Amino acid sequence: MKKVRGIFIKNDREIEVMRIANRYVSLILDSLEKMVKPGIPSIELEEHAQALCREFEVKPAFQGYNGFPYAICCSINDEIVHGFPSERIINDGDIVSIDMGVIYDGFYGDSARTFAAGNISEDARRLIDATRESLYKGIEQARPGNSLFDISSAIEEYAIASGMGVVKRFVGHGIGRSLHEKPEVPNFRVPGGTGIPLMTGMVLTIEPMLTLGSADVDILDDDWTAVTVDGSLAAHWEHTVAITSDGPLILSQS
Ligand code: MG
Ligand code: MG
């Protein structure tokens, strides 16, 4: 892998390995989506994710990362990200964000989706849809010739036009042989610049976290779970995306 301005540039073979890693993540999320129903404890999602990692012969990427104890992050309702799966029962009307990563053949995959449990409110549906759509607005900009903050601006503009709060505490990132590589990928325009030029061979996660209310964040006593300060609902969608000469290539799909 060559390095440009501190950023690892992946060749076609490396991107192909990352496509496989991320496809496993997507398959696991597909399977977890079917389990997200009122009445199950969220720890069952963790157990299922672990079982699929064994079946696929991939390593969970988050478990042990800076001491994180689980394979999945499971964040319910006002939890934004980094929630712990637990004995907590998922209720009708909850929204459940699952973030999952694996390591395959030395490379990382990383993706997140927010799922509805049973019948959710119209506001919760609008939040999930706006978060997913803002992700795709960002992905559209992930092409050579653009700059990093074209991604950031597209996400922020769509989120604000949809009436959502944009969480600034957490951002997307480069990804490859490490879970977190340069550059950071903010979900908002950073004043005073355009960001680095985007180049073929960069692989980024793009991962907006939007809220129905305040986008300010508290961290719970477990030192991980990030929640909205005002208790408003939050959603999180993430894809790992390679920048190719043909434009963005979403790696984290089945
Ligand atoms: Mg993630
Ligand atoms: Mg990520």
Which properties best describe this structure?
single chain, 4 helices, 5-stranded antiparallel sheet, binds magnesium ion, Creatine Amidinohydrolase
Q: Any overview of this molecule?
A:
With 254 residues, the chain is an alpha+beta fold. The protein has one domain (3-250): Alpha-Beta Complex (Creatine Amidinohydrolase), CATH 3.90.230. Helix content is 28%, strand content 28%. It has four helices and 17 strands. The protein has helices at 12-35, 43-56, 122-140, 148-161, and strands at residues 2-4, 7-9, 59-60, 72-76, 79-81, 95-104, 107-116, 165-166, 172-174, 181-185, 203-206, 209-211, 217-219, 226-228, 234-236, 239-244, 247-250. A five-stranded antiparallel β-sheet has the order 10-9-11-16-17. Strands 3, 4, 6 and 7 form a four-stranded antiparallel β-sheet that branches. A hairpin with a 2-residue loop joins strand 1 and strand 2 (7-9). Helix 1 (12-35) runs antiparallel to helix 2 and helix 3 packs antiparallel against helix 4 (148-161). The two termini are 26 Å apart. The model has no long low-confidence stretch (mean pLDDT 97). Bound molecules: magnesium ion (MG) (2 copies).
Describe the protein's topology:
Layout: E1 2-4, E2 7-9, H1 12-35, H2 43-56, E3 59-60, E4 72-76, E5 79-81, E6 95-104, E7 107-116, H3 122-140, H4 148-161, E8 165-166, E9 172-174, E10 181-185, E11 203-206, E12 209-211, E13 217-219, E14 226-228, E15 234-236, E16 239-244, E17 247-250
The site of one magnesium ion (MG) has 5 residues, from strand 6 and strand 7.
